[in-house]
Amino acid sequence: MPDLTSVVEDIAADLSTRVERGQVASYIPMLAQVPIGQFGIAVTTAEGETITAGDAAVPFSIQSISKVFTLTLALGKIGDELWARVGKEPSGNAFNSIVQLEAERGIPRNPFINAGAIVVADAMLAGAQPREALGAILRFLRFVADDETITIDEAVARSEKETGFRNTALANYMRAFGVIQHNVEHALGVYFHQCAIAMTCRQLAMAGRYLAFSGRLSPSGPRVVAAERARRIAALMLTCGHYDGSGDFAFRVGLPGKSGVGGGILAIAPGKASVSVWSPGLDRHGNSVLGSLALERLAKAMRWSVFAG
Amino acid sequence: MPDLTSVVEDIAADLSTRVERGQVASYIPMLAQVPIGQFGIAVTTAEGETITAGDAAVPFSIQSISKVFTLTLALGKIGDELWARVGKEPSGNAFNSIVQLEAERGIPRNPFINAGAIVVADAMLAGAQPREALGAILRFLRFVADDETITIDEAVARSEKETGFRNTALANYMRAFGVIQHNVEHALGVYFHQCAIAMTCRQLAMAGRYLAFSGRLSPSGPRVVAAERARRIAALMLTCGHYDGSGDFAFRVGLPGKSGVGGGILAIAPGKASVSVWSPGLDRHGNSVLGSLALERLAKAMRWSVFAG
Amino acid sequence: MPDLTSVVEDIAADLSTRVERGQVASYIPMLAQVPIGQFGIAVTTAEGETITAGDAAVPFSIQSISKVFTLTLALGKIGDELWARVGKEPSGNAFNSIVQLEAERGIPRNPFINAGAIVVADAMLAGAQPREALGAILRFLRFVADDETITIDEAVARSEKETGFRNTALANYMRAFGVIQHNVEHALGVYFHQCAIAMTCRQLAMAGRYLAFSGRLSPSGPRVVAAERARRIAALMLTCGHYDGSGDFAFRVGLPGKSGVGGGILAIAPGKASVSVWSPGLDRHGNSVLGSLALERLAKAMRWSVFAG
Amino acid sequence: MPDLTSVVEDIAADLSTRVERGQVASYIPMLAQVPIGQFGIAVTTAEGETITAGDAAVPFSIQSISKVFTLTLALGKIGDELWARVGKEPSGNAFNSIVQLEAERGIPRNPFINAGAIVVADAMLAGAQPREALGAILRFLRFVADDETITIDEAVARSEKETGFRNTALANYMRAFGVIQHNVEHALGVYFHQCAIAMTCRQLAMAGRYLAFSGRLSPSGPRVVAAERARRIAALMLTCGHYDGSGDFAFRVGLPGKSGVGGGILAIAPGKASVSVWSPGLDRHGNSVLGSLALERLAKAMRWSVFAG
C-alpha cells in the first residue's frame, strides 16, 4: 500500500496544473464569483489523522453536500416514515427536474435531488421553527466536525433565495400533493440556508467520519447514528449522490460520495477514511471536474473502491 | 462473526414458510409455468467452499443475470468503445422502457436495462455470427462456473422470441440511430438465447466468483478479467442491477447484485463471497421477493455490506 | 333548417333528465359546493337575438373561459410579441401539467392551458398594476357583454389562491426561464381573479359575439378587434380550447369552444351565433359533460359545424 | 370576392421566386433526391372546375396525406370500433415519437401520426391480405380522383422499408399491447406502400372533394361517405393534420389540411373547394414551407377560413 500523504500531495500537485476545469456554477450569482483555480483535499483516517493539501483551509459553499447531514438529522427526527414522502431510487434526470414529480404524484425519487432535499428540510420543521431547524443543523455539523466556527454565509443564502424560482416551483408542486406539509416559504428558507453553509475541506472530512465508520466518529469512537443508518445513507450516496452522473462516479471512483455545485465532494471509504475535495469548476451534471478526478486517483492508488475484493 | 453455514440454513428454513412471494413473471409463457414455491441459495467463499440450501440444484432461467456475463465478454471484445453506445447511469424507468431512448438519441442508459443489453448483444456480433456469439457466451459461463453442463433452454428462447415485441421495438428503434450496428434479428437472436440460459444457484454462485475477487476465480486464483474491469462491472451492478429497484436494493442489502425475471439474483460480497439466490415470485420492479429478502438477511448477518466501515 | 328556439328548448328539456353528469370540480372548495343538477344555455344570433333555456340567468364561475378574453386583451396590449412567450400548439397533456415546460424551456404550449394563461396574465401587467389589469378585464367583459353587473366572486378568488400550489409552481417555474417577467404573486393574482369572474350563460353568449362575427358585435356592428385576430383566437379555441379533450370536441361538435372547470363552455358558430352552455359536472379532462353534449346536439341540428360543406 | 384564377396564379408566380424553402426530407433516400425548386397548386371548386398553376401535373410522393384516405376506408370497414385502438387528440410530439405510446398503453393519440396510421393500416387487414388492402386503397383513390393512372412508386416503397426502423419499432411496440392485431410485417407493408403512392396536385385536389362537400364529390354529386364522417375526418385534419405544427397551421390558414413529408398538402374549404399544394422543402415539423404559405395566402384572399364569420 502506498503512503497516503505522498498520494494526496502528488494528486494536489498534479491537479494544480490542470487547464480543463469545467465551469463555475453560474445560476447563483455569489457562487459565480468564486475563482476557478482552486483545489483542496483533506483525508481523515481511521487512525484519526487528517492529511490535507492545496486549499484545504479555504471555506466554500457546501451546497448539496448539506443534504447528507439533513437527511441524517431528519431520519433521527421522524424515522423511517420519511420514506413515505421521498424515494430511494436514482432519478435519471437533472438535479432540478420537475418532470418526475408529475409522474409520481409529487414524491421525489431520492433525498439528494433538490425536490427530495426540500422534503427533508420540511421534515426538519416537525415541531420546530425554521430558525430552530437551522440551529439543529449547525449544531450537528459543528459537533461531527469538532469545529465551532462553522457558519452560514448569509450573502449566499440571500442569493439562493432571490434566484430560486425553480426550487420554489418544486416546493409548491409538492405542496399541492401534500408531500410538503409545512409552510412552503419556511421549508425553502431552511433549504436555502443549509445550502449556504460554508466549510473547509478539513471540516468536511471531519464531518463525514460517522459515515465512514458505521456511525461512529472513529472505529472505536463515540456513536453518532446507528450503524445500519450510516450504511444506508452511504448506499444512497453511492446510487444518488452525483445527480445524473452517479453511475459514472461509482464506475470510476467506486466510493459513496455527495457533490455540491459549490465544487465540493464528500466521499467515504468505509472503515478507512472520510475524504473531502473541492474545486469550483463543474461538469455538465454539476459535479466538480477536478474533485472527481482527485477521488478517482486517490481510490485507485489506495485500493479503496468498495468493489475491490 | 456467525457461522456462514448456519446463517444460510436458517435463511432457507425461514423463507420456506413465507406466504408473500410476489408474482411469477407472466409475460413469457414458459416462465409463467414455474411453480412459485421454490427457493434456493448458494454461497461460494474466498476459501473456495460452496454452501447451498433449498432448491440450489434446480436449474432456472437466468434471464437478465446473463447481462453481467455478456457485458464482461463484450468489453473484452471491443473494449471501452462500447461506452459510446451505452451509458453507465441508472435509468429511472422500467426495464423495458423506450421513453428514455427517444430523449437520448437511441443510446440506452446502462447495459442492464433491456435496450442496453441488446446493444451489448449487438457488440458480441462484431466479426461473429449469432451462433458463434452464443457459443462464446456458453463457453465463458461453463469456464467460470467450472461446469460443462450449462445450456440454453430452447423452449424458453422460442417463448421469448414469440412474445418479444417490446424488445423488437427497442432494437429497431436503436437501429434507426445506428446504435445497433448489425442485423436486428441477429442481435435479438443472441439476446433472446442468452436470457434463456438455464443455471442452478450453485452454478451461478461459482460463475460470479471473478466479480467477487477482483477478476480472479479466487483471491489467489487464475485471472479472468482485469481487476479494474471487475470492479467497474460490480459498480454497475450496484447502481443499475435491479432496474428501478436498484436504489432500494443498495439501501437494504448493500451488495452489488443483478436480478433476472426468472427469479434469480447474483450478488457479490467483494473479497468474501459470490452468492446466488432463486425464488420465482417477483415484486413490481421485476426482482425476486424472497431472493432480495434472503440477501438482505445474509448481508446483515455476515456484515458483508460494502458500506460497513 | 329547424327552428332555433325549438332546438334549444328541446335540448334543455332532454338534458334536464340526464343522470350521468360527471363530477363537479373538487380541487377548488368553492366550486365543489355548486349543485350538480343545473343546466343553462344561451344563443346569441347574427340577428342580435338571444335565445335562452334552463338556468341561463344563474351566474357561475367562468374559470378558464376567461382565458379567451385575456388573450384578446393581451394581444391588443403587446401584439404578436406575446407569441415569443407562449406557443399555439395543443399540449397533449393535462391542463395543469408542468412536464412540457421543462422540455421546452419554460414556454407553455398555448395560452389556454394554465401555464399559458398565467403568461397572458403576466403580459397584462406590462405598465399596469394588478388592480388596473383586472379593471381592464372587467371593463372589456362588461362592454362586449353589454352588462355592467359582471363582477368577480372574491370568495372564489380566495379559494383559488389558497389551493393554487400547482399554479404557483407553474408560475415560478416559468419565472426561472424569464417567461414570466413581472412579480410572480402579481401575475398569479390577476390569474386567480380572472378565473373567479362570475357570469350567466346569457352574459357569456353576448360576450362571445366578437369571436363569432369576425371581430364585430354583429355582422354589421361595431368592431372590437381586427377580423384576423378574431379568426386566430377562434382557431386556438378549436385546437386547444378543451385541454386534452380538444380533438374530441372538434370531432363531435365541430365548433371553436373554450371550457372552464366551473362547467361553462363558450362556443361560436362563425357568422351565425355565439353560444354559451353551463352544467357543473365535468368529464375526466375537466370539460362539462352536459355542456359538450348540448353543443353537439345544437351544432348537428343547426348544421353549424365549421366542417360542413 | 377576388377572382380565384388570378389569386392562384399570383401565388404561384410570387412563390416561384422564394429563396427560403426549408429542407427536403432526408431520411428516405428516394425523397432526398427530389429537386427543391418546384411548386404546384390545384383548386377544385364546388362548381367542378379545377384551376392549377406551377408544377401541378408533376407526380410526387403523397406520404402522410395517404393517411386521410386510409382512415376513410378503415372507418368504412370496421366503423367506430377503430377508435378503441387510436385516439382523436393532437399529440404534442413529433410525428414519429414513441414516448406517448408508453404512457398510454400502446394507443396512438390520433390516426395521422405514424403510429396511428399504422394502426389504421392494420385495420385495413381485417379479412384481407396486404395486396388486397393496397388494391382497395388504390381503387378508392382512382375513383375519388377520377383518374385510373394513380399508382404506387415501388422504388419509394422499398426505400421506406429499408430505412423504416423507427416505424418498425412503433409497430412492434403497439403489437406488444395488442393494438396492432395482424402480422407486424403485413401492417408495415401496407403502410410503407400507401405512403409511396404518387399523385399530382390536380389528382389530389380532385381526391379531396368528398371532404370539402360533406361526403359528396360535389355539393349535389354522388355520395362517397356519410356527411358526418366527412366532417369528422375534416375535424381531425384541423386538429392533427400537421403533426406538431397543427395549431400553427390552423392559426395561420384556418382550413383543415393534411401534410406529407413529400412536400404535399391537401386542404379543404368546406362547401367551397378542395385544394392541393406541393413544394418539397419542409420546415422543422415536416410540413411544406411554400405549401403552407400558399394556403395561408389563398385562404386569406378568398376569405375561406372556417373561422371567418
From TrEMBL, chains A, B, C, D:
GO molecular function, one term: glutaminase activity
Enzyme class (EC, first level): hydrolase
Pfam family, one: Glutaminase
Coiled coil: none
EC number: 3.5.1.2
Gene Ontology biological-process entries: glutamate biosynthetic process; L-glutamine catabolic process
Residues holding substrate: 64, 114, 160, 167, 191, 243, 261
Annotated InterPro entries: Beta-lactam/transpept-like, Glutaminase
Catalytic activities: L-glutamine + H2O = L-glutamate + NH4(+)
Keywords tagged on the record: Acetylation, Hydrolase
Assembly: Homotetramer.
NCBIfam families (alphabetical): Gln_ase, PRK00971.1-2
Family recorded in the similarity comment: Belongs to the glutaminase family.
Protein name as catalogued: Glutaminase
The species this protein was found in: Azorhizobium oxalatiphilum
Gene (UniProt): glsA
